[in-house]
Design goal:
Layout lengths: L4 E6 L2 E6 L10 H14 L7 E6 L4 E3 L4 H9 L3 H19 L5 E5 L2 E3 L1 H6 L4 E4 L4 E3 L13 H6 L5 H8 L5 H7 L4 E2 L5 H9 L7 H8 L7 H4 L1 H8 L4 H13 L16 H16 L2 H14 L5 H15 L3 H12 L19 H7 L17
Parallel strand pairs: 2-3, 3-5, 4-6, 5-7, 6-8, 7-9
Antiparallel strand pairs: 1-2
Length: about 375
Amino acid sequence: MSDQISVTVADGVGHVTLDRPQALNALSYEMIHELTDVFESWVDDSEVGIVVLDGAGERGFSAGGDIRELYGYAVDGNAGEARDFFRSEYRLDALIARYPKPVVAIMDGITMGGGIGLAGHAAIRIVTERSRVAMPETRIGFTPDVGGSWLLARAPGELGVHLALNSRTMDAADALHAGFADAFVPSERLPHLLQALAERADPGSPAEIVMLFDETPGPSALALARDWVDACYSAPTVREIITRLRAFAEGTPDAASSSFPAHPLDPAASAYAGAAADELETLSPTALTVTLESVRRARTLPRLEDALEQEFRLVSWFIEQHDLREGIRAQVIDKDRSPKWSPSTLEGVDPHLASDVITAQVHEPVWPDRTPPVVE
């Protein structure tokens, strides 16, 4: 197909591999279009009964969208091209989510951002002991997109808010618990799984075949943290979340945080909560404020496409903002890890900003013929 993806069809299995291992299979605009062409061509192809989606190399399925490409759009003033990229990407994500044939996505290794957009909405999502799954957008002054807000909003309790605000990375057990994956298959068994899918015998469905290789990973740290995460991240604002985290870490919950767990303070949980508060203090106040509103509103939306439209309004705004350019510069370009956010404090963020950006339809939507309703 190209030097960025590889495609084969054999034994009824359409196999598409992201093939930029030197860039952790980061998604370029070219790859988005090529993947769309492949998936569209297989919809009515009688030779394809199952689609397998994976990434080349052993380091990751996909580290996300090509951040350097996004940075180029931002600094060169090509916001229109960036919006075209996001529209194309979101349409592909929705196509995979609604695909009429089973899509088996193998999230072996690093799977973040745009990688979750491809794999996170597939019919069967597999993680391995090497999986590292995250929506890390707040680290670059951005907000979860590619349907990430939809998945985060449906995680148990307030875990999705924690994952979104802190850009927390999940292992296989966490991804399963949070609803980002369906099965755990050790990486050494993946070749055998692919062979079984190719040799499938009716009436065994792809899901049933995957279950033959499914194992139970270790305990989920997210699941163990659920009680205090719910208590802290249910606060109405990011500032109050930080206040609750510090109170929990210090063992001094106040009256406003009466839902804190009643059991004796766990030193490990205390350290975890304190570190989470410290981390939030270093991230973009604007990105945190908007992300909190985005995930909470996504809980009320009826369809993935509605969440994608909401995200598109946000990313269309972010692409022209200082914090996204500064976040990419600090983390990816110069790598000094010292971004200068503007505003620099949560108190400096307009309290109406998130709502205003989410509800403002400034640019042509992803699906012009069926714009989803605005959630008030």
